[in-house]
Every structure is written in C-alpha cells, then in structure tokens.
Amino acid sequence: MSLLSYSVFDTVAEQQSFLKAAEVLNLTPSAISHSIANLEQQLGVALFIRDRTGVRLTLEGKNLLPHVRAVLNSEERLKQEAAHIHGLEKGLVRIGTYSSICIHWIPEIVKSFRRLFPEIKIIIFQGGYEDVVGWIKSGAIDLGFISLPAEENLTVTPLTLDPLLCVTPKDFRPQHPDYVTVAEIKDMSFILQRDDYMKETKALLHKHQLSVHSQFYSIDDQSIVAMVESGLGIAILPQLVLTKNYADVGMYPFKPAEYRTIGLASLKKQYLSPASLKMYDHILDYVEKSGLNNLNNQ
C-alpha cells in the first residue's frame, strides 16, 4: 500500500466522486478507480458504495479513514520538519470553523499569516460545531474553532467570551430598556437553529429549564435574523454573529449576562505539524493583539 493510494482514498472520500477526485489529484478517472480497487483488494474490504449519485463510504471505509488520514498527516509533518531543518517555512494548515468566526476573524488571520509565511498553504473548512469536532477527530483538519465545553479527547485553548444576545422584533419592549431577563421571554416563540448549530442556545434554555415554543428552524444566521425582523419570533445569538448586522431588530444583552466561550481545538498538540503550530501561535497572538481576550474580565 502506497501513500498515493491513501491520498486517493482520502480525496475520493472528501469529494464523494471519482471524477472530482481525479481533477483534484490531476489523475485520470480510470487511475482513481484502479487505485481504489487495488486498495480494497489489499485491505480485503469494500471502501465505497457506488451508485448513480456518486460514491459514499461503507462502514468499513468510515472506520479506516481516520487511520489513513493519520498516515497522511504524519507524512505531511515529516515533510514540514525536513523543510524546517533546512530553514524553509513550507507546509499545509487546515482550519475548521463556523460561520461567524469565518466572517469576522478568518480573513485577517489568513491575511496576516500569509504576510509572515507566504509558502504555507491554508485550507478553510466551514460547518457547524459538530462538523468541526468530527473533522478534528477524523484528522480532516489540524485546528478548529469550537465552543466550550469540549470533548475530553480534544486539546482546547479558550480564546474569548462572546456575549449571547436576545434578538427581537423592533416593536418588542423589554421590561428594562437596556437588557432582558430569561423570565420575560420564557413564553415567547423562538427561531432556532439545527441542533448542532445551537449549542449555546440549548445550554441557556436547559440552564433555566425553559420550554421552547417554536415553529421555525434554520441553520443560517442571517435567515434567523430576517425571520425575527418579520415578527415571527425571537432568537438567541452570539454577539459576534450580529456584528455589522443592519436588520431592523432589537438586540439586548441578558442580565445576568450569558456567554459562549470560543476556543481553539486540536488533537494532542505534539501531533501538530510545524506549520500548524505556527498558525496556532498566530491565532493566539491575533486574539491578544486585537483585544479579544476578555477571559480575565469576568
């Protein structure tokens, strides 16, 4: 079994298509098919289910993929260590994040990092919280932005506290002009996100033992704000999501204050490549210099 065959397996799993994998790897579709067939024969298991819509991993394929990615990641770390010995700053960093971080933090992080290390390639994956955690655990990404608390097998560095705000239709009048309490919204209709996108909202509702009345679910932050603006309900969203929001809605902090804690996660830090370690340190430096580190203010 060769590293090329592992790379083909990983790319087909990511692209869910032999044709797209061939384009990414600059190989012919027949070469991709032949490589997968040989790998399946050597491993003695079927890796993919093939149908008219493309290909998807079998259960055996899903179980083997993290191990294949571990091999590929080790090879990448080896190359980067060799480049580091020769004084070269090269490599690849894969970062997983959710929408608000991707919009408001990632552009400046990538831009400033590239000024320092122009030869290091950066790939960004965007998804929900569970997506990011799954990508870290499977080896698909090196670093991921998540909300705490995190799973025990992840290494996480807390970065900042992001206040949770109550987003209301413009005609909503809170009992106090500058904030809302959980008690005064307990009987209102909520606009919610899909479960793996609403970790903080679920935690707040569970903490205060609130029953949710909702007829609307969305996974897009701006869609939620638009539905609130139309008077269909209220929402609970992190302040970062609402940065540069121009919708005609009310936005109120909670009293007592509620937060989500944003953290930077990875597998064990010693497994990170030199390029990933540089990005790790760069993100921490960005948070500090941008005045985002408010962890000691609470």
Could you characterize what this model shows?
There is one protein chain. This protein is an alpha/beta fold and 298 residues long. Helices cover 42% and strands 23% of the residues. The protein has 10 helices and 11 strands. The strands form 3 sheets. Strands 3, 4, 5, 6, 9, 10 and 11 form a 7-stranded mixed sheet that branches. Helix 8 links the parallel strand 7 and strand 8. Helix 1 packs across helix 4. The longest helix is centred in the first third of the chain and has 27 residues. The mean pLDDT is 85.
Map the helices and strands.
Elements: H1 3-15, H2 18-25, H3 29-43, E1 48-51, E2 54-57, H4 59-85, E3 91-97, H5 99-104, H6 106-116, E4 120-126, H7 129-138, E5 143-147, E6 155-169, E7 189-193, H8 199-207, E8 213-218, H9 221-229, E9 235-238, E10 249-253, E11 259-266, H10 274-289
Helix pairs in contact: 1-2, 1-3, 1-4, 2-3
User: Average pLDDT across residues?
Assistant: 85
Q: If you compute it from the alpha carbons, what radius of gyration comes out, rounded to the nearest whole angstrom?
A: 22 Å
Largest sheet: 7 strands, mixed
- Counting H and I runs of at least 4 residues, what is the number of helices? 10
Name the beta content range. Answer: 15-25%
Structural class: alpha/beta
Cα separation of the termini:
53 Å
How much helical structure, as a percent, in the residues? 40-55%
Which oligomeric state applies? Answer: single chain
- Along the chain, the helix and strand elements come as HHHEEHEHHEHEEEHEHEEEH
Number of strands: 11
Name the poorly predicted regions.
none
